[in-house]
Design goal:
By secondary structure, the chain is of the alpha+beta class. The protein is built from 5 helices and 5 strands, in the order αβαβαββαβα.
Length: 134
């Protein structure tokens, strides 16, 4: 478990840094990034920020669905937390039946992608994200 978690966390940091600079991404929600509002607290309380993150794809619900459907390596799933990278687009998956206004009250925007970063090769993960965001 210790080795697995080290890989999960280092991959998540690399993915967050990559997404944070990508022009198709509005924002990245990951406590390991200095831009996160709880970064300072996370630095004090945690030895690493973990493997879970979310990000907003520019272009709304269509862009979020297109992104998730173009992924080749990452697995679409509403359940998160295995050795594989899992992604979900709540607006078109788990929360599809909830009105947009209701979803947005809880931060579930049209382009929001949730991701549990796995232990795959980081170059392969980044390549999959890159082709899906293109």
């Amino acid at each position: 478990l210790e080795l697995r978690m080290q890989r999960h966390c280092s991959n998540a940091m690399e993915v967050a840094l990559y997404l944070d600079k990508h022009p198709a991404v509005e924002f990245v929600n990951y406590t390991g990034l200095p831009s996160h509002p709880d970064y300072a607290v996370a630095q004090k309380q945690m030895s690493h920020p973990g493997a879970m993150l979310s990000f907003e794809v520019k272009g709304g619900i269509a862009a979020g669905a297109r992104f998730i459907n173009r992924l080749q390596m990452c697995t679409k799933a509403v359940s998160l937390g295995t050795v594989d990278t899992l992604v979900s687009h709540p607006a078109s998956m788990s929360h599809v039946g909830i009105a947009k206004e209701e979803r947005e009250k809880y931060g579930i925007t049209d382009g929001l992608i949730r991701m549990s970063v796995g232990i795959e090769n980081i170059e392969d993960l980044i390549a999959d994200l890159e082709q899906a965001l293109a």
